[in-house]
Amino acid sequence: METTSRAGAQEDTGAPGGSTAGGGPAARRTVDGYLSAPFPWYGLDEAFTGPRWLMQVTAAADGTVQHGAVGHGDEPTIRAAAEDGLDKERFAVVVTVAANPVRRSGDGTGTLEATSVSSAAWLAGSGLLSQTWPAQLDHSMRDNWLAQQTEVCFDLADDLQGEDWSSLSLPVDGVPTPFHYRESEYGWVLAGSTGSGVHLGAYGRGMSAYGLGFSVVKDIQAYA
Q1: Residues contacting residue 217 through CB under 8 Å, at least 6 positions apart
Q2: DSSP label at 174?
Q3: From CA 139, how far away is CA 96, in angstroms rounded?
Q4: How far from chain centre, in Å, is Cα 22?
Q5: Count of C-beta atoms within a 10 Å radius of residue 188
Q6: Which residues, in sequence order, are bridge partners of residue 59?
Q7: Domain ranges for the chain
Q8: What's the CA gap between 201 and 173, in Å, rounded?
Q9: Residue 3 pLDDT
Q10: What are the start and end residues of every segment in region (Disordered) (predicted)?
């Protein structure tokens, strides 16, 4: 399976969906990583007029940025479901993954894994899980649940042609683009590729994926 490693070096937070949003010091630190990426970042297009916020980037051992995420709508609070059993959050997170083949690491110590649409699907799926707290689980049980579901998510990302996925066409920079799409009780996940050298993943709750469009982020600092 061509996916990004599950143990990449990350800036600020360790989970694929970990948020450093809100414009505070963590968000200001994080924007530096976005600015150093050698690929374009994607977010929701101009049709979305709600809040936008930074999450985090992930870099290889040599410091090269590999992928990152930006959020739209409400910043998810994973305890909401555990506290009142009702999830009123409306958010969509877009994950941008550099499209890379297997290659030597910059420091010459080994190789970097290839990335593919499966990489974007894995990061989006695990990101959704990281923002989910099933109401019936306490803290220790959620840790076990998260580990188990993350393995399931990895397997699903490895089988994008399987029956758990359907097809969905959404605009990317105004061009209709095919995506792999699936829903669960916790939200939705999708993944596809662009014509600009990146793979896209996305996940969300409370916002329908069917009406979304994606475009290159013109000014990433606007998310901070």
Answers
A1: 40, 41, 42, 43, 70, 223
A2: T
A3: 30
A4: 18
A5: 20
A6: 9, 65
A7: 9-223
A8: 15
A9: 43
A10: 1-26
Residue entry with tokens 């555990």: 82
SS3 30: helix
What DSSP state is assigned to residue 116? Answer: -
Structure tokens at 143: 């840790």
Amino acid at 9: A
Per-residue pLDDT of the chain (224 residues; tens, 9 = 90+): 444 444 333 333 333 444 333 333 444 447 999 999 999 999 999 999 999 999 999 998 888 899 999 999 999 876 545 455 445 789 999 999 998 876 555 555 555 567 899 999 999 999 999 888 777 777 778 888 888 888 989 899 999 999 999 999 999 999 999 999 999 988 999 999 998 889 999 999 999 999 999 999 999 999 98
Q: Which two tokens stand for residue 176?
A: 């209709």
- For residues 69 and 94, the answer to whether their CB atoms sit within 8 Å is yes
Tokens encoding 221: 């600092």
How many whole angstroms separate alpha carbon 65 and alpha carbon 37? 5
Please state the three-class secondary structure of 193-220 as a single string: ECCCCEEEEEEEECCCHHHCCEEECCCH
Distances, alpha carbon 83 to alpha carbons 32, 136, 184, in Å: 35, 10, 20
Alpha-helical (H) ranges within the chain are 25-35, 79-84, 117-130, 139-157
What do you get for the CA distance between the two ends of the chain, in Å? 34
Per-residue confidence (pLDDT) for residue 80, from 0 to 100: 47
Question: For residues 210 and 220, what is the distance between their CA atoms, to the nearest angstrom?
Answer: 24
Q: What is the pLDDT of residue 96?
A: 98
46-80 in b/e form (b: 16+ CB < 10 A) is eebeeebbbbbbbbbeeeebbbbbbbbbbebebeb
